[in-house]
Amino acid sequence: MANSHKKHLHLHTHHHEVSNKTVFYLFLSFLINIILSLVEIIGGFIAGSVSLIGDALHNTSDALSILIAVIAFKIGRKKADTQYTYGFKRAETIGGFINLILLFISGCYLVVEGITRIISPSAINGSIIIWVSVLALLIDVATAKLSHQDADKNTNMRMVFLHNLADALGSVGVIISGLFVVFGDIYWIDGVIALCIATYMIYQSVCSFPHIVKILMNAAPEHINPTEIKEALCQISGVKDIHHLHIWYINETDISLECHLVADNPKLIQEITHFLKDEFQITHTNIQIEQSADCEVCCL
Questions:
Q1: How far apart are CA 71 and CA 146, in angstroms?
Q2: Which of 139, 156, 165, 199 is the most buried (most CB within 10 A)?
Q3: The domain at 20-216 falls in which architecture?
Q4: Whole-angstrom distance, CA of residue 96 vs CA of residue 219
């Protein structure tokens, strides 16, 4: 195909940038949660409580998620180079994939431990459980407040906030377990609370897994129908055909599209890129114009 018959347009826009102040808050949340996890693990072993250890595992997973989010924000700001031509924004997705696997494994471990404690309950120290969990609850609420910064503007920040909020609810569950032990000598409740936390961890990882895999596999976003887009573009005056249509996520927020457009007017590119952005929120486009004669020799 003659170069004079090719037109390429790249339209780039940026989603909400997380401020350095917010990234600092996230890192502070990570440090606080790691310290909390260590306290819960030590307290769980001393008290003999699997639910407290389970809450620590969940909290550790969320702390690692926060750390990876911080690293991803830092890496994501790096400019594209000759090898990573799309940049580094997908680092956040890869980190999320690793975190989901760790969360799932931790949940499975907790299921086994929880069932064991229900079948063969052992004596635990309810007072230690309550005091450590109260401390955990206060820290969970504080870190949720820290991660609430920009949660309404950035998807990753919103997920971090929801994770911390879920940690707070888990701490409430462990406190309830401690109260049952202190006032009723009901030890099997520890295993039940552990199973509840494990169920949440497994449910969260399983539900999030397909979406992350689709991003890594360059699948089309769930809310976008390529056939619908093709039909909409073909309705534009001057467009004769669309082929080689590919739509995928660059990261969790940016969608990319490339296609071959059969038309005799190269000026249509500007109109089409604005149309895709306004109607489908597709902000990264690469459209190649082919005239009718060129299309006959295009490798479809």
A1: 17
A2: 156
A3: Up-down Bundle (1.20)
A4: 17
